[in-house]
C-alpha cells in the first residue's frame, strides 16, 4: 500500500521534483508551502502521515519551530530538507527531535533511501493506535478491543488507508490507487470490500461508527 508523505516546502520546483520522484517509488505526497496549513492538516484535520519532509526556510514560520510544534503531539518521523547545511543547524535539529537531516542540493534517490531508513527504524514491529483499533503494519494485523480482525490483504490495505485519511472524504478511485487492487477495478468491487470490512468490525452502514458513505464521492472514516 502507498506510504503517505507530508512535504512542507515552498519552492515550487522542489515540490514537483520530490513529489514526482517519490511517486515513482510508490509514495503518495501531500504538499504544503504554508507551514500553518500543514499543521492544520495534522492537528485539525487529523491526517496521518508515515513521514514528514520539512524545509527550514518557510513563509511566516521557521522550519525548526514547525518541527518543535509537531513534536509536542506526534512522533511521526521528520526529515529536514534544507540548504542550511552547517553542523550547528544539524545538531540543533537532532536536539529538538528530528530523525534525519539532508542538506540541499541532494539526489532525490538519497531522500528515498533516508525515508526508507527512518520508516524501518520507526516500524520496529510496533503497534499503531488509531481510534478503537490497534494496527501492526509489520504483520498486517488489526484488532478491536483486543479481538483480532480477520482481514484479507486488500481489506487491510483499504482499512489502513481510510484510517490514515481519518475525517477526509476519499473517492473509490483513491482507494483503488492506495491498495493492490488493479487500476481497472470497478467501483462496485470497492463497495463490496467496504461492506466486508464493515461486517468484520461490526459497523452499521445506516448508522456508522467508523466508515461513513459520502454520496457522490466515496467514503470517510469518522471513528
The amount of helix comes to: 40-55%
Give Rg in angstroms.
18 Å
Strand content: 15-25%
Strand order of the largest sheet: 2-1-3-4-5
- Structural class from helices and strands? alpha/beta
Secondary structure tally: strands = 12
Q: Which stretches are poorly predicted, pLDDT < 50 over at least 5 residues?
A: none
Q: Choose one word for the global shape.
A: elongated
| Largest beta-sheet characterization | 5 strands, parallel
Q: Could you describe the 3D structure shown?
A:
The protein has helices spanning 12-24, 35-43, 63-71, 87-95, 108-123, 153-164, 172-178, 187-201; strands at residues 3-8, 27-32, 51-54, 78-82, 100-103, 128-130, 133-136, 141-144, 147-149, 170-171, 211-214, 218-221. By secondary structure, it is of the alpha/beta class. Strands 2-1-3-4-5 form a five-stranded parallel β-sheet, with helices on both faces. A hairpin with a 4-residue loop joins β7 and β8. The radius of gyration is 18 Å and the shape is elongated. The model has no long low-confidence stretch (mean pLDDT 90).
Amino acid at each position: 500500500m502507498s506510504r503517505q508523505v507530508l512535504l512542507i516546502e515552498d519552492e515550487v520546483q522542489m515540490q514537483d521534483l520530490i513529489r514526482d520522484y517519490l511517486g515513482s517509488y510508490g509514495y503518495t505526497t501531500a504538499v504544503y508551502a504554508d507551514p500553518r496549513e500543514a499543521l492544520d492538516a495534522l492537528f485539525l484535520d487529523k491526517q496521518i502521515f508515515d513521514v514528514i519532509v520539512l524545509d527550514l526556510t518557510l513563509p511566516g514560520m521557521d522550519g525548526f519551530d514547525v518541527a518543535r510544534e509537531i513534536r509536542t503531539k506526534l512522533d511521526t518521523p521528520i526529515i529536514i530538507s534544507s540548504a542550511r547545511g552547517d553542523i550547528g543547524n544539524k545538531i540543533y535539529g537532532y536536539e529538538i527531535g528530528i530523525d534525519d537531516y539532508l542538506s540541499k542540493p541532494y539526489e532525490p534517490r538519497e531522500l528515498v533511501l533516508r525515508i526508507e531508513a527512518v520508516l524501518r527504524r520507526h516500524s520496529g514491529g510496533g503497534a499503531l493506535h488509531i481510534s478503537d483499533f490497534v494496527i501492526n503494519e509489520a504483520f498486517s494485523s488489526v484488532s478491536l478491543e483486543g479481538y483480532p480482525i480477520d482481514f484479507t490483504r486488500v481489506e487491510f490495505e483499504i482499512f489502513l488507508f481510510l484510517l490514515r485519511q481519518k475525517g477526509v472524504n476519499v473517492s473509490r478511485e483513491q482507494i483503488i490507487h492506495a491498495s493492490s487492487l488493479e487500476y481497472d477495478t470497478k467501483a462496485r468491487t470497492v463497495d463490496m470490500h467496504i461492506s466486508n470490512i464493515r461486517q468484520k468490525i461490526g459497523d452499521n452502514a445506516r448508522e456508522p461508527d467508523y466508515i461513513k458513505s459520502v454520496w457522490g464521492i466515496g467514503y470517510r472514516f469518522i471513528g
